[in-house]
Write a structure and sequence with these properties.
heterodimer; A: 353 residues; mainly alpha; globular; B: two-stranded antiparallel ribbon; 32% helix
Chain lengths: 353, 259
């Protein structure tokens, strides 16, 4: 849907390579998603997957019924929610990261800058102390993330400065506060059951994602991403600096508020879905900028697609490479760090000059 | 208008008007309130008393978008964190002319952008990276952006700072040419010579007040410049009629101070 509009808009100035990359990412992600349905402990071959999809679509049984039921179970209850979750989380974190980098005019910013991740960790940990219900943990993570960002905004407001610097300082304070609160919760937690649960949750995992969660959270996450994409043009102007943006016609407080709200909302939802998934929101926008350039109208959607593809691949690797699954948050770190180093080497075309 | 930061009064009863199609220079030492005047003009700061009137309407009552369509700001050439193309930077001047959420610009908008770049002679830079061109070229790109904005008033904050000698004069010539086309230009400057050369009118500011206002030849006298900058100056008139101002103290330096 967005493809035609965006490539039309940039055709005169952006290198065609940028728009081509976007298209490539779009179809690449589609292919990866289908392939990921087949990858895992329970092997499904490509032809079997194709026959399954065909019989699903046409009502003509191409697979024997027992096997069909098995496949249906695996694909619909295990693989599909996981694939969709990886796409949503990867896209959400990357789009938020790219939007924050443009708004703070700093390419080292990640979605956690304003404390949303620290707050979400704390909220989830508290919920785990209180009970064993998964829905409670998700709600706790989401609420914690929002509260932490509110603390940041409140601090920036106390100092009566509408400046980015105050927001960053507020974010540092808020992150510090919620990190130390998390430590208190860990210290109080029962070391045999609760503490390991908290620690594992903090590493992030996609294996626990169920179909109900994914279907409930997909609409709000997609809506948040859509808002960020719609702000792409305004983000371009915002990245020139607040005063210039105002004189160019951007309502800076409003635009900034919308970016913070949407990015916080999306990030908190991803955490409540699968815990902490590090590095995606920092590294992926860099890679995307190398591919399509800094114009946020193209960069934001490309970041989202690339982030989704990245998390899918990492999850596939984490799923099959070892006998016990590596937590996805750890896997993104292990893969994200060398990627970041490589990107910084090529940084000149990205943002360093 | 008046303005204060906290309890410090920065502007005290500053009042002036700029006729359409003229170039007005604000001249004064560091800290005299030039930048504050510019920020108030642009609506970035609210005066604590008084108002800025634009064709009979109060600037602070205009919406941000309407203000951007009528007044364009040319900041000092800066570097950015992100390597936009020159054309992308100039295109940002069209922001106020499109709906906020509309991500594309029309072919006509691209024409405006191209015309603006041609106007200041940087069309050949369109595809270059803004962070990789020279300071003078960046300044021209920002002027092109302001022209693309389609405003009738250009506000420039020390537009020549950081430019080399040749670029300074080329830029001032450009400013004159724009005014000749009907644009109104308000600029602040550190150089009396530039005010002589490029302005129809000057305002000398001193400690938040207007010391003098008028045509450069009349307003800028030896004594006033001495008061402003604390430096003895001579004003010379060249054969072409152009005036320039040189420090007078160099000849009387005590012996032995420079070897």
């Amino acid at each position: 849907m967005g493809v035609g509009i965006i490539s039309w808009g940039v055709r005169r100035f952006a290198p065609p390579a940028g728009a081509l990359w976007f298209l490539g990412l779009f179809f690449g992600l589609g292919g990866l998603a289908v392939a990921s349905l087949g990858i895992g402990r329970y092997g499904i071959s490509a032809s079997e997957l194709a026959r399954f999809v065909l019989s699903l679509a046409s009502d003509v049984p191409l697979i024997e019924p027992a096997r069909y039921d098995e496949l249906q179970n695996v694909i619909f209850h295990v693989r599909l929610p996981r694939v969709v979750a990886a796409i949503l989380i990867g896209a959400g974190l990357s789009a938020s990261g790219a939007a924050f980098q443009a708004m703070f005019r700093n390419p080292l910013v990640s979605p956690g800058l304003l404390g949303v991740l620290a707050g979400a960790s704390f909220g989830a940990a508290v919920a785990m102390l209180l009970g064993d219900r998964w829905i409670l943990v998700q709600a706790g993570a989401f609420a914690g993330g929002l509260v932490a960002v509110c603390v940041t905004l409140g601090l920036a407001r106390i100092y009566q400065a509408d400046s980015l610097l105050m927001l960053v300082l507020g974010g540092i304070i808020s992150t510090g506060l919620f990190t130390s609160l998390l430590s208190i919760v860990k210290a109080l937690a029962d070391p045999y059951n609760q503490l390991p649960a908290i620690v594992f949750w903090l590493m992030g995992r996609l294996s626990a994602v169920d179909a109900a969660t994914v279907s409930a959270l997909s609409i709000p996450i997609l809506a948040g991403i859509a808002i960020l994409l719609l702000l792409g043009k305004a983000l371009n102007v915002l990245s020139m600096g607040d005063e210039e943006a105002l004189t160019l016609g951007v309502n800076v407080p409003l635009a900034r508020g919308a970016v913070i709200l949407a990015a916080t909302f999306v990030s908190a939802l991803t955490v409540s879905m699968a815990g902490m998934i590090a590095w995606v929101g920092l590294v992926i926008p860099h890679v995307a900028r190398l591919l399509v350039g800094p114009d946020n109208r193209l960069l934001l959607p490309s970041s989202a697609l690339l982030g989704a593809a990245f998390l899918l691949v990492v999850d596939d690797v984490a799923r099959v490479s070892f006998s016990s699954e590596i937590p996805i948050g750890v896997a993104t770190e292990l893969i994200g760090i060398p990627l970041f180093i490589a990107v910084l080497r090529r940084g000149r075309a990205g943002w360093l000059t | 208008m008046n303005f204060s930061y906290g309890t410090r009064l920065v502007l005290d009863a500053v009042s002036f008007s700029v006729p359409r199609g003229r170039v007005l220079s604000l001249l004064g030492p560091n800290g005299c309130g030039k930048s504050t005047v510019i920020k108030i003009m642009l609506g970035l700061l609210r005066p604590h008393g008084g108002a800025v009137w634009l064709d009979g309407c109060d600037v602070s009552r205009l919406s941000i978008r309407d203000r951007a369509r009528r007044m364009a700001y040319v900041p000092q050439a800066h570097t950015l964190s992100f390597p936009y193309r020159v054309s992308e930077v100039v295109l940002m001047g069209r922001f106020a002319h499109r709906r906020v959420f509309q991500q594309t610009y029309s072919a006509q908008e691209y024409r405006v952008v191209r015309d603006a770049m041609e106007r200041v002679g940087i069309a050949h830079l369109a595809g270059r990276i803004y962070t990789e061109i020279s300071g003078g070229e960046r300044q021209l790109a920002l002027i092109a952006r302001a022209l693309a904005q389609g405003a009738e008033i250009l506000v420039m904050d020390e537009p020549v700072s950081g430019l080399d000698f040749g670029n300074q004069w080329r830029l001032l010539r450009e400013v004159r040419a724009l005014a000749a086309e009907g644009l109104t230009v308000l600029k602040s400057t550190h150089f009396p010579d530039h005010a002589f050369l490029s302005s129809d009118e000057v305002i000398l500011m001193h400690e938040g007040k207007i010391l003098a206002q008028g045509r450069p030849e009349e307003a800028m006298t030896k004594d006033r410049l001495h008061l402003l900058y604390g430096v003895e100056v001579n004003i010379l008139t060249q054969e072409s009629g152009i005036r320039c101002c040189v420090p007078a103290g160099l000849g009387n330096r005590p012996k032995g101070s420079v070897r």
